[in-house]
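Write out the bound-state structure for xanthosine-5'-monophosphate.
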Amino acid sequence: KILILDFGSQVAQLIARRVREAHVYCELHPYDMPIADIRAFAPKAIILSGGPNSVYESEYLADPALFDLGVPVLGICYGMQWMAQSLGGKVDAGHMREFGYAEIRARGHSKLLEGLQDRANDAGHGLLDVWMSHGDKVVALPDGFKVIAETPSCPIAGMADEARHFYGVQFHPEVTHTRRGTEMIHRFVLHIAGAQPSWTMPNYIDEAVKKIRAQVGSEEVILGLSGGVDSSVAAALIHRAIGDQLTCVFVDHGLLRLNEGQMVMDMFAKNLGVKVIQVDASTAFMGKLAGETDPEKKRKIIGAEFVEVFQDESKKLTNARWLAQGTIYPDVIESAGAKTKKAHTIKSHHNVGGLPETLNLKLLEPLRELFKDEVRQLGIELGLPHDMVYRHPFPGPGLGVRILGEVKMEFADLLRRADAIFIEELRNTIDPASGKTWYDLTSQAFAVFLPVKSVGVMGDGRTYDYVVALRAVVTSDFMTAHWAELPYSLLGRVSNRIINEVRGINRVVYDVSGKPPATIEWE
Ligand code: XMP
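---
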């Protein structure tokens, strides 16, 4: 396995993704991981991430004893600078920031870059397109190092000590803008470090099943099933490991999508034989939400009521000792990083978190090590249907944040039907250019209920009904997003169908706001 030390990079997760794509297991830890822990982790190699800081700021320094472990080290950007400084080289504050594409020339022979090139210059030297983002730079090599890449403004864009297997690159191989970047990381991990490419889903299932059985023994486990990808895959995996020792609790807060309850019950209870308790709590949720129009208060109410209902149900399962959760690796990294990176609460997210303290149960989180795409692969491997595994995300508070203002069952019912039509049309419409459906081309799409009435005409009569907004976005991380450029013909079809089929809605609009400044959800 590979250890990645995170110096506060925005893209450290991408390094981990690239390593995992080589089928090698890796973990991301903060830069100040104690050397004793690093030794105990026994990495096959270490990768030092980039970071926003300067090596002069002493607080962002790792323990240089890691260079004595006898394992290969790859430093990226700040990681390279810290490596250079720690081993006796020199780093200078750059007077010019370099940001964006750069063309580097590979120099000499190095196991990292040899033979890799996007094109050659007249002299036959390999040239590579890379992504650079830095101010400081290495100006003097430590002993034993040679230059392996240069640009006109950065004469030491890459360095290597091949005897000790230490490599540094000033550019970012983990981002796709560096076209050969994935190959560089795979070379480092597989050829230079000699890691075995044994991290595959079937192997992972075997190991995870063994681990869950060893952890849980003969005790019982409860899991809050939401119908989302993470909790569903966690349920399928745990069920594979311990069968009937798992009981899922599926809380229907009345704010789910059309037929969602039925779909979850069919998939888990009927097809997979998982024990699922379905709790219809819609009346209780609606009661609590009555009269409330403030978005944050609505979120809090839904979150608190969810905990309440879940807790009541789990108390009935007197033998349960474990609470299973679909926590995935980005959640783990985020909460670990939250202490160093300041975050501003735009919306209070509601997840199943916060339950364990009150329930007195031990936590079982079998997806803690997986990225989202790995969770999806795992779901497919465990036999979950493709449509479920590749579903768009759905927020915990459900339609509660898509019905603006006060939530009423009447509104939820209208919205459910409009939303289902939108999703059906997205799934059924193929974009000829890519051959993909518009559902797959968008990252998230849904309808929003606007509690305002407008005048319309239908047949010979006047209507005075509600408005629905359609929202569809394209994003890779949900932190920023573009509104999707859906074809007019598709939007027209969706609008016609909603207005004709959903009595109570006579107007459909399309949301053309990006994030930022808008958010994806309307509340
Ligand atoms: P925003 O609206 O903040 O949404 O741009 C970003 C992503 O987060 C989802 N979202 C939530 N997910 N609980 C969740 O599990 C929540 O409370 C919640 N609020 C927003 C949203 O659907 C989008 O994918």
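---
The chain has three domains: 2-192, 201-389, 402-510.
The first strand starts at residue 2 and ends at 6.
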